[in-house]
Each structure stands twice: as C-alpha cells, then as structure tokens.
Write the structure tokens for this entry.
Amino acid sequence: MGTMNISLPDTLKSFVDEQVSQRGYGTSSEYVRELIRKDQDRLQLRGLLMAGVASSPAAPADDRYFAGLRDRVRKSAKADAQR
C-alpha cells in the first residue's frame, strides 16, 4: 500500500478527528479512504448518467413504464422471499 501525507488547516484536522471519533473509524486514513471511495462511486454514477443522457430513449418513461417497473420489482421481491 502506498503512503500519502497531507497537510490540513487546524479546523479541517479537527473536523476529521471528530468524524473518526463519532463515526467509528479506526484512523483518519480509514475516513479519508472512505471519502475517496465515495467520490469514485459518484464519478462512476455521473459517467453512467451522462451516457444515459447521450443515448436514445428505448421506451417512453410514462405511467405504463413505471407500473411495469413496479410490477417487476414486486415479482422479484416475492421470488426472493420464497427462496
């Protein structure tokens, strides 16, 4: 694993220390790694959303579409409950 040292103003260091303490992180490094992972997830989601915006719509997202979607979710949940 690589090492990275960062400098923070006292107010940010206090904030990080508080988050580590209140949210159950073992170290400030764990907290920072979690922030980076969340940022990676956010960027990936943004990329997917932008790809979706750039694509042609496959079907209109009208009441019928959402009713079908809800139906599929219910059936899937019911099938999972039966397993």
